[in-house]
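Marked as duplicate of an earlier ticket. Keeping the data here for the record.
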Amino acid sequence: MDILTIQGGKTLHGELKISGSKNAALPILIATLLTDERCTLRNVPYLDDIETVIELLAFLGKKIVRDRDEIVVTAGSALQAEAPYELVRKMRASIVVMGPLVARLKRVKVSLPGGCAIGGRPINIHLDGFRRLGATIELEQGYVDLKAEQLKGARLPLEFPSVGATENLMMAASLIPGRTEIVHAAREPEIEDLSAFLNAMGARVTGAGSDHITIDGVERLHGAIHSVIPDRIECGTYMIAAAMTKGSLLLQHASASHLSALIEKMEQAGIEIDAKDTTIRVKGPAKIRPVSLETAVHPGFPTDLQAQWIALMAISSGVAQVTEQVFENRFMHLPELQRMGADIQTKGNTATIRGVESLSGAEVMVSDLRAGAALVLAGLVAKGTTVIHRVYHLDRGYEHLEQKLSAVGANITRSKE
């Protein structure tokens, strides 16, 4: 396995281009299952999760050709109705193949999903929605078996604004007769991007970005060309990197409107932010003020930036509290930060962080994707050498991480253990 080695203490300066959004590209790729026609997707990042979905689509009957950040998906063999364990176990987002496949084939059998170990994240919200649309569901030997001789539009009140369930049901409803309303829907920018792609294919989706999405089903969808939105979590991570290293970064191909909650908190911490239409400049202060927060579903503070924020607060000039309200098991990175000298105590779902003057390099281990990002950030400012193990988690969500950071002044290298 690969490791990352960071010599801390370097100030970051320069420009970084933000990659396409992983969390938008994944469901959009899966949405190509809704048509046999050619779909061209641009600004798709090179990530392990993307490669997993490409492999899954090929297994399900699609032909995929990649040229740099462009992916072309066309019909290959006949669509398959089963997504096996060995593919779905790698990534939780694979579960959203249920929507397109049940809409087109009237049956789908999907392994229960895998992914990062950050909480239970049950799929009951997905399944309740499919039942309301007319599907029958059986759970056996680790698989979900959906059958639907006749689906029809319905009102789907979600008990929690699940991003995956919103995507799954929105895709299915696009080809289901009648009107479907998703109530208490997820509002993330990635939902809006999926809606834009579906509508480009001929779907009739309105309200994406609000908590009430309406889909009027159509008989068929056609091919489309679509460019994926920038990755707001990658962008937020590099914004925090600039602040922590007291540097100055100009982030190109960024979307400040997707990061309003982070920008507000960073400005409260004394960090200078200059946001334009497609660029964000971040300048780190001499001292970082402590700022407390709670994670929340969009438009609140993203849970996917919680670990990075704790790393920032670990070198602040006071005491901050971070409360995790979305996932119940997302503090697994804290012991690793403590190994680097961070002063953090937890009680329930709240972490209290007392800022220290400096962190120290150490050997640490990544537990999940965003925890890994927090350890990289800590390593950038720590005294001495930080060695990060299990970086395959990072490869799921950060394109060319060490190359991008090296280009703006970080001393970071990848090697084999």
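See parent ticket for discussion. Residues 22-227 form a domain with the UDP-n-acetylglucosamine1-carboxyvinyl-transferase; Chain fold (CATH 3.65.10.10).
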